[in-house]
Design a protein that fits this description.
67 residues; 66% helix; 0% strand
Length: 67
């Protein structure tokens, strides 16, 4: 989808450097995708801490099974 966004030159330059992208559109797309993924991970972490998921193994049991 195409959209128009106003981003100042300094921020866009930083964004290109951070993402490693040379063109503006891929840099913005990469940044937005990363932001969305981080938010989803944060929400998932909150759900885990709230005990929404009922997982039968303890942390010790999981760690010992990985060895």
């Amino acid at each position: 989808m195409r959209i128009t966004v106003d981003i100042d030159d300094a921020t866009l330059k930083d964004l290109a450097r951070i993402t490693g992208e040379r063109k503006k559109s891929p840099a913005v797309a990469k940044a937005v995708k990363e932001f969305v993924n981080r938010q989803k991970a944060r929400e998932f972490g909150t759900l885990l801490r709230e005990g929404v998921f009922d997982y039968p193994l303890t942390n010790d049991a999981i760690e010992s099974a990985e060895r």
